[in-house]
Design goal:
- The chain contains eight helices and five strands; from the N terminus they run βαβααβααβααβα.
- By secondary structure, it is α/β, with parallel strands linked by helices.
- A five-stranded parallel β-sheet has the order 2-3-1-4-5, sandwiched between helices.
- It is globular and about 50 Å long.
- The two termini are about 35 Å apart.
- The chain binds thymidine-5'-diphosphate (TYD).
- The site of thymidine-5'-diphosphate has 15 residues, from helix 1 and helix 4.
């Protein structure tokens, strides 16, 4: 169920906490802008003003938010974000670069919180009326290495033990295996430049058709 009602390109970045997504998304934004494309760069949770309120609740809300409540808050953020921002952009033929999407819910809530990968995937598909990404870049890294990179204060999910984050990594890799048509696994222990080169090589052929009316790199 691709976004075949539109002509845009839906790119998602996934990975465990502190895998380096933010840096890579910024580099991709700069690259797309340099070739004349104006991408919509967004994130979950929190890609909209309503979503930002939900994000605060999830990441800094009370400790008694249970797993089901957490899953529904992510799904509510996602439903609104996709309906009001992402689908309209794709319908306009835009390239959307998104930090986290339904695979995050499958890995974090479905597996790490043990709510069931299939149930959580179905919840997200229901919330978004079945929108899947065209391409998903998984930045894969050992959670212990990622944790050592962190400098700021940890949020509610980051405070979970390493074992929680290892389950997330395993589920992401299983998702990549099962959905090899859209997933690309990238070794996120490499340098930011090396990772960027790899991400760009994957995205270049997909982005090319959007350059037709714009300046081409070559
Ligand atoms: P954020 O600060 O955006 O983390 P990151 O930079 O690693 O993406 O916080 C988002 C947190 O929410 C992160 O720990 C992953 C988690 N998350 C879920 O558990 N389920 C979801 O569906 C999404 C989108 C995020």
């Amino acid at each position: 169920m691709r976004n075949d009602s539109s002509h845009g390109l839906f790119i998602t970045f996934e990975g465990g906490d502190s895998c380096g997504k933010t840096t890579q998304i910024e580099l991709i934004r700069q690259w797309l802008t340099s070739v004349g494309i104006d991408p919509v760069v967004t994130r979950e949770p929190g890609g909209t003003p309503l979503g930002n309120k939900i994000r605060q609740l999830i990441l800094h809300g009370p400790d008694d938010i249970d797993a089901r409540c957490e899953a529904l808050l992510y799904a509510a953020d996602r439903a609104y974000h996709i309906a009001t921002k992402v689908r309209p952009a794709l319908a306009d033929g835009r390239i959307v670069v998104q930090d986290r999407y339904l695979d995050s819910s499958v890995a974090y809530q479905g597996t790490a919180r043990a709510l069931g990968a299939n149930e959580i995937r179905d919840l997200s598909l229901w919330a978004t009326n079945n929108l899947l990404p065209d391409v998903t870049l998984l930045l894969d890294i050992d959670p212990a290495v990622a944790r050592a990179r962190r400098t700021r204060e940890l949020d509610r999910l980051e405070r979970e033990p390493l074992e929680f984050h290892s389950r997330i990594r395993e589920q992401y890799l299983a998702l990549a295996d099962a959905n090899s048509d859209r997933f690309h696994v990238i070794d996120a222990s490499a340098t930011p430049d090396q990772i960027h080169t790899r991400v760009k090589a994957i995205l270049d052929p997909l982005v090319r058709p959007y350059l037709s009316d714009l300046k081409r790199e070559d």
